[in-house]
Write a structure and sequence with these properties.
- It contains 17 helices and 12 strands.
- By secondary structure, the chain is of the alpha+beta class.
- Among the domains are: 155 residues, Butyryl-CoA Dehydrogenase, subunit A, domain 3, CATH 1.20.140.10; 223 residues.
- The protein has a 4-stranded antiparallel β-sheet, with no helix packed on it.
- Strand 1 and strand 2 form a beta hairpin.
- Helix 1 runs parallel beside helix 3.
- It comes from Dictyostelium purpureum (Slime mold).
- Keywords: FAD, Flavoprotein, Oxidoreductase.
- Its cofactor is FAD.
- GO terms for molecular function: flavin adenine dinucleotide binding; medium-chain fatty acyl-CoA dehydrogenase activity.
- InterPro entries: Acyl-CoA_dehydrogenase (IPR050741), Acyl-CoA_Oxase/DH_mid-dom (IPR006091), Acyl-CoA_Oxase/DH_mid-dom_sf (IPR046373), AcylCo_DH-like_C (IPR036250), AcylCo_DH/oxidase_C (IPR009075), AcylCoA_DH/ox_N_sf (IPR037069), AcylCoA_DH/oxidase_NM_dom_sf (IPR009100).
């Protein structure tokens, strides 16, 4: 898109021409690598606003034009990627316009005018690629403002920035809040570290203790952090890829000149065909990377979905950086001592800068894992992050294991203390349910995005769909049904939205008219065995010990054909718990009925397995493993 600035037609070609002039003016000066000087001077010809909206004074270029400028600037210096356009300030626009504060809008305008420079602060001492494992936290006070505590490390631009975009956990975690904080904000302490690259930018970290942050500094709404991160870095990783391509191409230009001018053994080294072959291969790789970047930019411009674009951006971020790094390293090698010296070439600096970019904002290894995950099968990713290091088959036929941390209460549990409001009172039933589902999820460590949000929406869906017609016990059984379906259907396409998946399960359950109880008043439910119907639901509301047993078992027919693999969840009072599942067949039968699991073959007319002896079909059940978890209900239940 074209725009006017002081009666000049601003195009990508115009921006590149003006950047060339500015580079010549600043070359051999102390401010050559200063991002602040570049942004101040660049704002005069529109460099700082090329990818920002017209309403903020920007030019709103097409992404295909923006990547041309990033690649061109990368030829000068990879760190010049920070002087182009909005850079990280674009995070402020990753939310709905109605959610954008005046504070954020003002900073965007300042960036366009060259008066502000924004850094981003996410990484922590123990949280890098797995950024959702961060520990820094925000708590909302009675005035609606926030109190922040935490420490960040390995963050760039801190000494140059006027503002930082700060990621911290929301108080109900693991959702994330994002704040736009002035760099001189009271309570924000800046630390400095040394880095191999990042010329012109500083490297360090920040710490903050009981730091008060006004609510106006919040970007978007509470809990929007993950969505903001993914939307912003989808674009930013593409820009980094384009800049890296430029860095690599310049290194190959230097290599070609070296091959033509350097004599060895009686002639130019360019006569050696092995060097020509290497030059050709590095050139091909960089141009392949450039074509991929152009493809993704076109997808942005044509309005492709986030899901579609996100298939290719990790590929570009990983391979463009690796292609460029390999090209620079090779060029440095054929320059010999000149390449190693900082007095004669900048190749060593290019290598160091690319090494940093290989790590920053999505490491090469993580990006490649994302490629495999999206192009082939999500199970590759699950295997990689499963802390049990056990291979998981299509069905979860794996041994259950104990959880080191016995405190599985979720921080948001108080929000549900009054969620079930039937004749039994029931304020603590959600506590029981949330604890139960969290134990299961902790055991399997599924890489579910924002699991507490998924649970929250599940409770909301159950409440809304039931319209208050379910008793406490029925809610327990319904939630158990969701757990069972999740474990049984573990092979469902993981790219399906998990919240939508749970919602569909809820809706499917309530649509099954034949499964609904004939009457609600007596608390009966076909999902619940007589043993549970006889149990006064009021007992669940008293602060006494309970025990959960999760049983893994297989069902086989008389010809030893596997009919199904199942997990059963049993919640029982501790003084009435089952102690010997292998020997107590009646207890196992109760568990089986409780779980509402029938034979998968509909021809069996819904008959369940008789564990007191062989049933007419000759089916049998084999216990694989048992996991026991004990807890006590909240004292608020009194």
């Amino acid at each position: 898109m074209e725009s006017n600035k002081k009666d000049i037609c601003i195009t990508a070609e115009y921006i590149i021409e003006e950047c060339n002039k500015l580079e010549q003016r600043l070359r051999n000066t102390d401010e050559y690598i200063s991002p602040l000087r570049w942004r101040k001077e660049g704002s005069k010809f529109g460099l700082t606003g090329i990818d920002l909206p017209l309403s903020f004074g920007g030019s709103d270029f097409k992404v295909l034009d923006v990547i041309k400028i990033y690649e061109h600037m990368g030829k000068f210096n990879l760190n010049f990627r920070d002087v182009i356009g909005g850079a990280h300030v674009r995070s402020l626009l990753a939310t709905k316009e109605s959610d954008q504060s005046e504070h954020s809008k003002k900073v965007v305008e300042m960036v366009v005018q060259g008066e502000a420079y924004v850094g981003i602060v996410i990484t922590e001492p123990t949280s890098g690629s797995d950024f959702q494992a961060m520990k820094s936290k925000s708590v909302k006070n009675e005035n609606g403002d926030f109190i922040l505590n935490g420490e960040k490390r390995f963050n760039a631009r801190l000494k140059q920035a006027t503002h930082i975009i700060l990621y911290v956990l929301n108080e109900d975690g693991p959702s994330i809040n994002v704040f736009l904080v002035p760099i001189n904000h009271k309570g924000l302490e800046i630390k400095s570290f040394n880095a191999q690259g990042l010329l012109g930018n500083s490297f360090g970290g920040v710490s903050f203790k009981d730091m008060h942050v006004p609510k106006e500094y919040l970007i978007g709404n509470q809990g929007d952090g993950v969505a903001i991160f993914h939307k912003h870095f989808l674009y930013w990783r593409l820009m980094q890829s384009a800049a890296a391509i430029g860095t690599g191409k310049c290194a190959l230009d230097q290599a070609a000149s070296r091959m033509l001018s350097r004599d060895a053994f009686g002639g130019p080294i360019g006569r050696f065909t092995h060097l020509q072959q290497d030059l050709a291969q590095h050139t091909a790789k960089l141009y392949m990377g450039s074509l991929l970047v152009e493809k993704i930019a076109t997808m942005f411009d044509e309005g492709a979905s986030f899901k579609e674009i996100s298939k290719y951006v990790p590929m570009a971020k990983a391979e463009c950086i690796e292609f460029a790094l390999s090209a620079c390293d090779w060029s440095m090698e054929i320059h010999g001592a000149d390449g190693y010296s900082t007095s004669f070439t900048d190749l060593g600096q290019r290598v160091n800068d690319l090494q940093g970019l290989r790590i920053a904002d999505g490491t090469t290894s993580v990006m490649r894992s994302q490629v495999v995950r999206t192009f082939y099968d999500d199970r590759f990713w699950k295997w990689a992050v499963d802390k049990s290091n056990k291979k998981q088959e299509g069905h979860p036929d794996i041994a259950l294991r104990s959880i080191p941390n016995k405190n599985n209460n979720l921080a948001f549990i108080d929000n549900y203390l009054a969620l079930v409001d039937d004749k039994a009172g029931g304020p603590c039933v959600p506590v029981l349910l949330v604890n139960t589902i969290q134990v299961i999820l902790n055991m399997f460590k599924r890489p579910l995005i924002n699991i507490d949000k998924a649970l929250e929406e599940t409770f909301q869906n159950i409440t809304e769909l039931s319209k208050g017609r379910l008793s406490n016990l029925e809610v327990i059984q319904l939630f158990h049904f969701l757990v069972y379906k999740y474990l049984e259907d573990i092979q469902f396409d993981s790219r399906v939205d998990y919240n939508e998946f749970l919602l569909n399960l809820c809706m499917d359950t309530f649509k099954r008219e034949d499964k609904k109880p004939d009457t609600i008043e007596d608390g009966s439910c076909p999902y619940i065995s007589k043993k549970w119907n006889d149990l006064d639901s009021g007992l669940l509301l008293t602060p006494q010990p309970y025990q959960i047993k999760i049983i893994s078992f297989n069902v086989w027919d008389k010809s030893d054909e596997l009919l199904g693999r199942h997990f059963i969840l049993l919640i029982d009072r501790k003084d009435d718990t089952i102690t010997s599942l292998d020997s107590n067949r009646q207890a196992i039968d109760s568990v089986f009925k409780l779980s509402r699991i029938d034979l998968e073959n509909d021809d069996n007319n819904g008959s369940s397995i008789d564990m007191k002896g062989p049933n007419p079909n000759g089916d049998r059940m084999i216990i694989n493993s048992v996991f026991t978890f004990s807890f006590k209900t909240n004292s608020k239940c009194k």
